[in-house]
Design brief:
The chain has 463 residues and is of the alpha/beta class. It contains twelve helices and 21 strands. A hairpin with a 2-residue loop joins strand 9 and strand 10. Bound molecules: N-(aminocarbonyl)-beta-alanine (URP) and zinc ion (2 copies).
């Protein structure tokens, strides 16, 4: 099967050019001007549209047990929703339960994804326990293509690990080449603030945000980078939300350290003011780290522009308002932490980033596709429009109008954090390994066609 995408503007992280793209089977065969359709070849007219590498969302939580419930999108609904918005690869998180082997966790998550995913998926491993065979388990994971690990400095008694565990994991990556991703918030300090708030009868959702100060994030980011520096390895800070935290990354990068960080659309576009709504409604915005004062937003955009932040992921971790967020009606600590967004990342970054002149089109491609592909060991199979790369391609219509709403979105969740946001720019055709899976707002893919993606350690981004 071969397809020719004609007359479009190919946009990569480095260049913008008028060129046609020929897909043969699962791969890109040719990129260049004036390619002619062959007999029996499917031709797609991309005039007026951008032809970009499929989005890569390096931070999702599908079908994940958390906060006394399970995230509401599974690999079928979540990856289909991702595809609608132009994302063709995700990297989700498997969780090592304390006292168990990582291979068992990997097996559990493989079973969750197998036969369900619409797009390709990789996995990070969340490390909760390095006692026993933990370090060997990490090496096993790398052999299985799980080339990155997430460790938590927050959520005491649930996922949080101590500095010794973090340091040992970091040191192990100097041998096996994996990348440590840090959830950087000082969980012990936050725990005290939370107890004090509850003791004062402060139980509303807003206190989730008010008990997690930006300095608790900055302190943990600083510590994570310092531990990585001592171990002599790179580190990647997930879902960075504040200027204070960004300053720590900037300082490290300015010293030449391989410190990487992502932020998410919610931290770029929403502030704690969104929680200023009556009743329990603000539980929709209970995720971690929380929304910040609006002064932080332009600083994060600057961070993206100046490459102090390299990636925008979603941290998609949806819980329905009606029957899941409501678990914390009388106590904010019982609200499952997380919010939906897997479908809207490209739309939001295109509209509020590119259209608003905050980032260039090439940077848009870089932060949403090429940089995560490089950092997480998928490049150039993913994240590129080049001969030999997987034909994960989005024909992006920059003029398409789209109203973001829970009434029309495809995520299995009953609200949108971006309800009523009117954006210009949307995916028109989405190809995953050469197969057309979304066409003009219709899903034309197949359940379970997505494949597990083995990722390489030492993706090379820090060389
Ligand atoms: O609130 C969040 N972010 N939920 C998902 C788990 C995490 O910390 O990434
Ligand atoms: Zn986290
Ligand atoms: Zn997360």
């Amino acid at each position: 099967m071969s397809t020719l995408i004609q007359h479009g503007t190919v946009v990569t992280a480095r260049e913008t050019l008028l060129a046609d793209v020929r897909i043969e089977g699962e791969r890109i065969a040719e990129v260049g001007p004036g390619l002619l359709p062959r007999p029996q070849e499917e031709a797609i007219d991309a005039a007026g549209a951008y032809v970009i590498p499929g989005g890569i969302d390096a931070h999702t939580h599908l079908d994940m047990p958390f906060g006394g419930t399970v995230s509401s999108d599974d690999f079928e609904t979540g990856t289909r929703a991702a595809a609608f918005g132009g994302t063709t690869t995700i990297v989700d998180f498997a969780i090592q339960a304390r006292g168990t082997r990582m291979l068992d966790a990997l097996d559990t998550w493989m079973k969750k994804a197998e036969g369900r995913a619409a797009i390709d998926y990789g996995l990070h491993m969340i490390v909760t326990d390095l006692a026993g065979a933990g370090l060997e388990d990490m090496d096993d994971m790398v052999r299985e293509g799980v080339a990155s690990f997430k460790l938590f400095m927050a959520y005491p008694n649930v996922l949080m690990v101590d500095d010794a565990t973090i340091f040992r994991a970091l040191q192990q990556t100097s041998k096996n080449g994996a990348l440590i991703c840090m959830h950087a918030e000082n969980g012990s300090v936050i725990d005290i603030l939370v107890r004090q708030a509850l003791a004062q009868g402060k139980t509303a959702p807003i206190y989730h945000a008010l008990t997690r100060p930006t300095l608790a994030e900055a302190e943990a980011v600083h510590r994570a980078i310092a531990l990585a520096e001592i171990a002599g390895v790179p580190v990647y800070i997930v879902h960075l939300s504040s200027e204070d935290a960004l300053n720590q990354v900037r300082e490290a990068r300015d010293r030449g350290l391989p410190a990487f960080a992502e932020t998410c659309p919610q931290y770029l576009l929403l502030s704690i003011d969104s929680m200023n709504v009556p009743g329990f409604e603000s539980a929709k915005y209970v995720f971690t780290p929380p929304l910040r004062e609006k002064e932080n937003l332009p600083k994060l955009w600057d961070g993206l522009k100046s490459d102090h932040l390299q990636v925008v992921s979603t941290d998609h971790c949806p819980f329905c308002f009606e029957d899941q967020k409501s678990l914390g009606k009388d106590d904010f600590t019982k609200i499952p932490n997380g919010g939906p967004g897997i479908e809207n990342r490209l739309q939001l970054l295109h509209h509020y980033g590119v259209n608003a002149g905050k980032i260039t089109l090439n940077r848009f491609v870089e932060i949403l596709s090429t940089a995560p592909a490089r950092i997480f060991g998928m490049y150039p199979k993913k994240g590129a429009i080049a001969p030999g790369s997987d034909a994960d391609i989005v024909v992006w219509d920059p003029k398409a109008e789209h109203l973001i709403s829970a009434k029309t979105h495809h995520m299995r969740v009953d609200y949108s954090m971006f309800e009523g946001f009117q954006v210009q720019g949307n995916a028109r055709h989405v190809f995953s390994r050469g197969e057309l899976i979304v066409e003009n707002g219709q899903y034309v893919g197949r359940v379970g066609r997505g494949q597990y993606l083995r990722r390489a350690a030492r993706g090379g981004a820090w060389k």
